[in-house]
Specification:
Number of helices: 10
CATH topology of the largest domain: Aminoglycoside 3'-phosphotransferase, Chain: A, domain 2
Helix content: 40-55%
CATH class of the largest domain: Alpha Beta
CATH superfamily of the largest domain: Aminoglycoside phosphotransferase (APH), C-terminal lobe
Largest sheet: 5 strands, antiparallel
Structural class: alpha+beta
Length: 280
Amino acid sequence: MFGQLAVLTTRQRELLDAWLPGATLVKDHGWGLVQTTVLQVRHGGEHYIVKAGGASDGHIAREITAHRRWLTPWTSRRRAPQLVRCDEEAKLVVTRFLPGELVLGHPSADDPETYRQAGALLAAFHAQERAEDPDHEQRENDRTLAWLDKPHRIAPEVVAEVRARIACWPRVASTLVPTHGDWQPRNWLVHDGVVSVIDFGRAAMRPAATDLARLAVRDFARDPELEHAFLDGYGTDPRDPEAWKRTRIREAVATASWAYQVGDEAFEQEGLRGLAIALE
């Protein structure tokens, strides 16, 4: 089967033919916006997920790091897929298939219990490791300025406002923890009422509050009860008010810029709205 998939490199096809000989394709789970192929396949009576990165992909390496370093609190409870095989150089990962439906678009997306479980899962993930980093804020500022230097449709006066604010932000040390990087319903599964986690291509050490940024723009904004349930599950609120303002501005700039570059207009508009709110 893998020899017929043009989206895979020759090396990826060779590895998969060796790891899962005779596997059959069940479903393509890719989003179609980035150079990452996500396939559900069947081999030997079991289902697996194959993730393969393209030439410019930077997600697979982070996915492998997450599996090797941070996922035990979830995989030990079958709340995240278990790693089967991987090859970082070939940008290839195979995990066991985790049953469930995406919370995004599912009735569970409006159920506070979903967010309570998601909060508890995230708290266990964040609690594994802590590190003080005196340079994190500066790196994030530089990254935001770099986004503003690339093509986007953020209004010039808004760009000027963001640049002016960044110039005045304090250079303080940050406490970093393992973060998922895209913590939201499209990366949660629900099965028999139990929430699980997928997609670790943005996992990295960051401030804990950054994992709440995407929830705040969408889910918390449309229903405050979901935010209350999430924080109840998490156990506390990791958001320092001033650092949270900076996080929301950076997140909105990155969202609007990235979405424009990949042609996701709805996500771009979400970033632009989030930036307007964050600057108020």
